[in-house]
Amino acid sequence: MECLVRDLSHNGALIAMANTSNLPGTFEIAIHKQGESRPAQMVWLNETRAGIKFTERRSNVISFEAARRIHSLEEERRMLRRRLEDWFL
To answer: pLDDT tens digit string along 45-83?
Structure first.
């Protein structure tokens, strides 16, 4: 779901979206400007806006930048492995 994050604070945010009817009670929100995702819980909502609070971070949550770096390193590893296999075969 696409939304616009407004009034971001350490504890939560106001989000605006076309329709909040499909917004679940708990979810992971991606905050692209900060390059991270955070677990959140809906506190209140109306037709186009919702107040959310951030919940405790799970230990397996990583930033988008870290995920991109991991993906890049895994691809580089695959390419190097292919080169070695080609060279030794």
So the answer is: 999 999 999 998 666 667 778 888 888 999 999 999 999
Under 8 Å between Cβ of 39 and 67: no
- The pTM score is 0.60
| Residues sharing a CB contact under 8 Å with residue 67, sequence separation 6 or more, in sequence order | none
The per-residue DSSP string of 18-34 comes to S--TT--SEEEEEEGGG
- What are the structural domain ranges in the chain? 1-58, 60-89
Residue 79, classed as helix, strand or coil, is helix
User: How far is C-alpha 37 from the chain's CA centre?
Assistant: 3
- State the residue for tokens 């989000």: 15
